[in-house]
Each structure stands twice: as structure tokens, then as C-alpha cells.
Amino acid sequence: MIIAIDGPAGSGKSTTSKLVAKKLGIAHLDTGSMYRAVTAYFIDNNYSIKNADIDAIMKFIDIEISNEVVFLNGEDVTNKLRDQKVSSLVSDISSLQKVRSKMVELQRKISLNKSIVIDGRDIGTVVFPGAEFKFFITASIEARASRRFDELKTLNPDITLDGILKQIERRDHYDSTRANSPLKKALDAIIIDTTRLSIDEQVNMILETINNKQ
Ligand code: DC
Predict the structure, then answer these.
(1) In testing the pocket of ligand 1, which one of 2, 5, 30, 31 has its CB within 8 Å of the most ligand atoms?
(2) What's the pLDDT tens digit per position in 147-171?
(3) pLDDT tens for residues 60-81?
(4) Which residue out of 14, 118, 121, 144 has the highest number of ligand 1 atoms within 8 Å of its CB and is therefore the one to mutate?
(5) How many CB atoms lie under 10 A from the CB of residue 156?
(6) Which one of 6, 13, 164, 176 is least enclosed by Cβ atoms within 10 Å?
């Protein structure tokens, strides 16, 4: 069983997906963390998006995720994924078709013969258009920025709520207008607006939908 959960940054989709998977006793894959891992790899190796041979780089990339710990070519890169540098560059990296093709291939491989909750931007539209369950999680930009701010402020004392709001606005625009697999609701996805919902309420809404349909 594939449960696809898509939505913009800060909508609560990763936390919700993780808890839904836990309640159902099945696997969870946060595909945003895969694009972040590739971005950290570009930064660590000083690869430039404009000049690098993306095909050659992607050929040598393998990503494995175990209990939310992300390994890129065997190295644990989890701690780098929320760096501001990674957050600033990840939209550019994830807009490259060669990067996306490789990530989609890995996402299908990781999900093979499994029941899994998989969250991202293009799961219900591109990665698993035939998923048994599709959800599209949204929330107002103010709610999303304030959640991201709360998440990041202890780690990065220099950030401001306004800075995060502007970054999310830019990322929303970029993610939903890019040519390759833009963030888009699948026609058959169920919309959940989480602006006024707690995480528990989001999780329960999804679980109820799944239980009612089975
Ligand atoms: O969900 P997140 O903020 O960790 O995602 C990081 C970036 O990766 C975001 O800019 C959009 C991109 N992304 C994507 O293009 N496709 C996905 N399936 C998941 C994330």
C-alpha cells in the first residue's frame, strides 16, 4: 500500500507522515530529505549547478534512509539537511531534471514491495500516480512560516520569522512554477488544510480516511 502525501514547505506533511506511518506500523520516506542530501553533496564538493556534469554526479549517488537517518553513499548526512545553505539551494538543485529522475528511481526502489507513507511534492502526480491514497496538505503561509521558525530557532539563533516567511514564499513560487514536476495537487488527492489543526488532528484525519476506505 502506497500513501502519497504532498504539500508545500511547512505544511506539517513530514511530521504527519512520520506519525501516520508509525500508527499503521509501516515505513516512511521523506523525499525532501533526499533532495536536501543531494544539495549538501553539491555544497560539500563545491559543484556548480551551471558547470557540473550532473549526469556523472548522479550516477555515483546512492541514498539510503533508515529510521529517518539519511545516508548518502554510506555517509550519515542527517545533521546537514537543515542548514540554511542547504535550504537556500535546494530549490535550484531539485529543479534539475537529471536530479529528479535519479531521485524518482531511488524512491521507487526504496518503496518496492513495501507498505509505505511517502511525502514530497510530486508523489501523487509523478512518483506514484497509482497510489492507493493521496493527500495534499496545505496551510496558510503565516502558519507554515511560524512552524518552521519554531523548528529552527534553537538551532539557528540568527533567523527571524520574517526571513523564514520570505524564504518560504520564494520556495513556494519556485517549487510550483518550475518546469519539471512542479508542486501540484493530484486531481484525485484529498486536501487537508492544517492552518488550524494540531498535528494529532491531521494524523487522525488521514487515519480515518484510510480506515474508512479499507
Ligand atoms: O519538504 P522539504 O522542505 O524538505 O523539501 C526540500 C526541497 O525539495 C523543496 O524545495 C522542494 C524539493 N522537493 C521536491 O522538489 N520534490 C519532492 N518530492 C520533495 C522535495
Answers:
(1) 31
(2) 989 988 888 889 999 999 998 998 8
(3) 999 999 988 999 999 999 999 9
(4) 121
(5) 15
(6) 176
- Which amino acid type is present at position 148? R
Distance CA 152, CA 82 (A): 8
- CA 205 to chain centroid: 20
Separation of 212 CA from ligand 1 center, angstroms? 30
